[in-house]
């Protein structure tokens, strides 16, 4: 969203915001959900389907006719060919100051959970693309600059071997995902993450054999067993044995969504 806001501001685009003010009963999105759009693009969603389609048409008409604001109460029933059964009140407004919207988007981003992805190999690159779609702050760390390839615009790439500083700076409740090119480095990062005892998710790529060997090493440095038990390894273990990076990334992304982002 931030990238689109900057692009629209630089281009002098007319922008509207659609916001769900009230959501009663079964609805596609909750009160407070919003989207932004111009005559040609949109970011965000109020839930899709006919509800969103009609609201987008109203918003683009508003941008064309020069109006500033309108409000609609919409039952989600036969009249719009939806069967949710609830009802929403939606605000549609022309945005006069994109700086305020950008500031709001930054504040919303700061409230998102943080996930640190250590490793920019084949699986790391696939994961960065997949995880960038989730509502989280993704920090991607590797000392090998050439390994990153294209970095998704919402991802913070850190080219550094000082993984300790990045890990120590992570807020409580963050997630850590470890898949470096070195088993020794995997062990160091994972052990330090488990020792923190305040992270919501700690995952490490590897087999069950690798996990057993690492568990012994963690116990040897006095990491409590209850902390070791929190380690997720193998990651993305949904019983599918396809080891292509894109497939691993899909399952791990689902795992992160369930374990780190679940409200």
UniProtKB/TrEMBL annotation:
Which InterPro entries would you find in this protein's record?
A: MoCofactor_Util/Proc (IPR052698), Xanthine_DH_XdhC (IPR014308), XdhC_CoxI (IPR003777), XdhC_Rossmann_dom (IPR027051)
Residues annotated as domain XdhC- CoxI:
8-71
Q: Where is the XdhC Rossmann domain?
A: 115-256
Superkingdom of this entry's organism? Bacteria
Q: This chain belongs to which protein, by name? A: Xanthine dehydrogenase accessory protein XdhC
């Amino acid at each position: 969203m931030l990238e689109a806001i900057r692009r629209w501001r630089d281009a002098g685009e007319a922008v509207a915001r659609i916001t769900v003010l009230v959501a009663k009963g079964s609805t596609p999105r909750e009160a407070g959900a919003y989207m932004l759009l111009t005559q040609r693009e949109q970011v965000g969603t109020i839930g899709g389907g006919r509800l969103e389609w009609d609201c987008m048409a109203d918003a683009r008409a508003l941008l064309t006719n020069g109006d500033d604001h309108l409000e609609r109460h919409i039952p989600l029933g036969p009249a719009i060919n939806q069967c949710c059964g609830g009802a929403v009140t939606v605000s549609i407004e022309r945005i006069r100051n994109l700086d305020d919207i950008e500031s709001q988007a930054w504040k919303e981003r700061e409230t998102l959970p943080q996930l640190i992805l250590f490793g920019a190999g084949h699986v790391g690159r696939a994961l960065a693309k997949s995880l960038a779609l989730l509502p989280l702050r993704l920090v991607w760390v590797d000392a090998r600059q050439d390994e990153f390839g294209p970095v998704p615009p919402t991802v913070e790439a850190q080219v550094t071997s000082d993984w300790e500083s990045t890990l120590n700076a992570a807020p409580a409740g963050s997630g850590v995902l470890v898949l470096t090119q070195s088993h020794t480095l995997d062990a160091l990062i994972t052990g330090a993450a488990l020792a923190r005892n305040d992270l919501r998710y700690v995952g490490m790529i590897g087999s069950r054999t690798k996990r057993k060997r690492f568990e012994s090493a963690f116990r040897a440095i006095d990491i409590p067993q209850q902390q070791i038990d929190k380690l997720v390894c193998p990651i993305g273990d949904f019983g599918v044995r396809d080891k292509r990076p894109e497939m691993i990334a899909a399952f791990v992304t689902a795992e992160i969504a369930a374990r780190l982002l679940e409200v």
